[in-house]
């Protein structure tokens, strides 16, 4: 009430100078949440697929990628310089023409992940295996990038 008298704001239907901006902000937030929840929107933020972990020990780097439902022979795995590239295509069977989705989080299509490795690699010492939808790629380190024990004299 004091602010209305001090700044001469209208007293009917207007609480403070930013009330309309606050109302519009809440409406925009509500609209954004609604649009993000709709399946199949091409402009939605891309999900990172596959999810990966990168670890290392003294001898190798290990990249573990979750690839459920993808066969090993459908993957293309390449190493070059300090990068590992995993490329493939995920297919999901059609659930029918007259299906109404209530939630659609699994997407189909081509994917490619490029993982930067923290050190030099030996491209001749790369092993990959797939077990229960988990891809593990072991990449040997170059001798020059391995830790070396220095003796103090």
TrEMBL record:
Domain SHSP: 43-153
Similarity comment text for this entry: Belongs to the small heat shock protein (HSP20) family.
Protein's UniProt name: Molecular chaperone Hsp20
Species name: Desulfosarcina ovata subsp. ovata
InterPro entries recorded: A-crystallin/Hsp20_dom, HSP20-like_chaperone, Small_HSP
Domain of life of the organism encoding this protein: Bacteria
Lineage: Bacteria, Pseudomonadati, Thermodesulfobacteriota, Desulfobacteria, Desulfobacterales
Gene that this sequence comes from: hsp20_2
Pfam families: HSP20 (PF00011)
Matches recorded under PROSITE patterns: SHSP
């Amino acid at each position: 009430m004091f602010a209305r008298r001090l700044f001469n704001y209208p007293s009917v239907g207007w609480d403070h100078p930013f009330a309309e901006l606050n109302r519009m902000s809440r409406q925009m937030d509500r609209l954004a949440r609604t649009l993000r929840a709709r399946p199949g929107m091409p402009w939605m933020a891309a999900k990172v697929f596959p999810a990966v972990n990168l670890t290392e020990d003294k001898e190798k780097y290990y990249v573990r990628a979750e690839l459920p439902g993808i066969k090993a022979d459908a993957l293309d795995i390449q190493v070059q310089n300090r990068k590992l590239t995993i490329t493939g295509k995920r297919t999901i069977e059609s659930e029918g023409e007259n299906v109404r989705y209530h939630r659609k989080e699994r997407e189909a299509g081509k994917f490619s992940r490029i993982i930067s490795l923290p050190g030099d690699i030996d491209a001749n010492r790369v092993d990959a295996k797939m077990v229960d939808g988990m891809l593990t790629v072991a990449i040997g380190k170059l001798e020059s990038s391995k830790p070396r024990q220095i003796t103090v004299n």
